[in-house]
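Replication initiator A domain-containing protein
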Amino acid sequence: MTLDYFYGQAGELFSFYRIPKALFQEQRFQNLSTDAKTLYGILLDRMSLSVKNGWLDEQNRVFIIFTIEDVKRALCCADNKATKLLRELEKFGLIERKRRGLGKPSLVYVKNFSAESSKSIFQNRDFHDSGGFKNASQDPSKSRCNKTKENDTEMSETDPFYSEEADGMSKRTQLEEYFSQALEVDLLLRLCPDDEDTIYQIVDLLVDTCATNRKLLHIAGDDKPAEVVRSRFMKLNADHIHFVLKCLAENSSPIRNMKQYLLASLYNAPTTMQLFYQNQTNHDLAMRR
């Protein structure tokens, strides 16, 4: 196919997505992928439509509705790529998603990258998800914990994530990719679409916990060696997460500290899930008799 040239002012006849130069020039955005920058430009373009339609919340903030399916159509990509790009923009503080539940799509707030307030996310990575989690990597620490007998039994001998950077990837990025695959996040999102925010909060919590330099972590009322917790978390799979979501949905008691509740649930998930299904099987067998 041979395309024609632009002549005169012909280029101005077309509409374009505008991607801020700051996303390419400023140091804080240097690790933001080009696809994510492109998506941000598309979301900015959609903002103008929201303004015209008067889509404002109680605080007069403009929001848009842009689902994973919309991302897939806009960038001609698959589910996992669309999901990853939205999460990437969230981590850089460029968007914020608010879950509404009841099968309704989340509201997307496109953040003002030029505002001074946006710089705070790189100083204290506090994400504004519905669970209100704080990044565990903020916890100060200078050394790794010493091995104990419990460490010897639960820690894996190989540890591909200990180096701060390996193959050009940061430790946190490696952990994010590891959990995305190990937990089959794309599958979980399809099976539990109403739990999208919770699933992402769980992944963030697992990454934060495994990336921390603290010696001890407070889980289920006890201080446990961080390496033991980390080793157990890295053995979790999609079945464990699905079980935790099920328990969370069936819990009728108020949860005062969601972060600690999830930490305990995730830590105990392998044992609790096995006992739960074993008891369920025993019950079914007894009923048949």
